[in-house]
Amino acid sequence: MATGTPDSQARFGQSVKGLLTEKVNACGTDVIALTKQVLKGSRSSELLGQAARNMVLQEDAILHSEDSLRKMAIITTHLQYHVEQSSDLQDQLNHLLK
Fold first, then answer.
1. Transmembrane region positions (predicted)?
2. For residues 8, 12, 18 and 24, what is the CA-based torsion angle, rounded to 10 degrees?
């Protein structure tokens, strides 16, 4: 196996070191970018989870409101019945007092 001159070996060594440094820097940059994406994805998952929890809370509030409206409608019907009944009783009382 032939060996090159010490000067050419030094240049080759510097060239390899330079290429390795570039590759290490590129890999470091890629790892940083990947980490940012993972963190962004994690944050997105957190936000989606929070949105889902908020939606469940809103759904419960809506269901409770619907139930309250149904009960108020029943109470309104009963009150209308009592108003009509009171009106009829008042008419009967007026008729008796004449």
1. none
2. -160
Sign of CA dihedral 74, 75, 81, 84: negative
Tell me the CA distances in angstroms from 80 to 45, 89, 90, 93, one per residue in order: 52, 14, 15, 20
Average the pLDDT over 29-33 and give the result.
90
Angle made by CA atoms 55, 60, 63, in degrees to the nearest 5: 120
- Which pLDDT score, from 0 to 100, does residue 1 have? 44
H or E stretch including 1? none
Q: How far apart are CA 59 and CA 70, in angstroms?
A: 16
Predicted pLDDT at 3: 57
CA–CA distance, 98 with 86 (Å, rounded to integer):
18
> How far apart are alpha carbons 92 and 89 in whole angstroms?
5
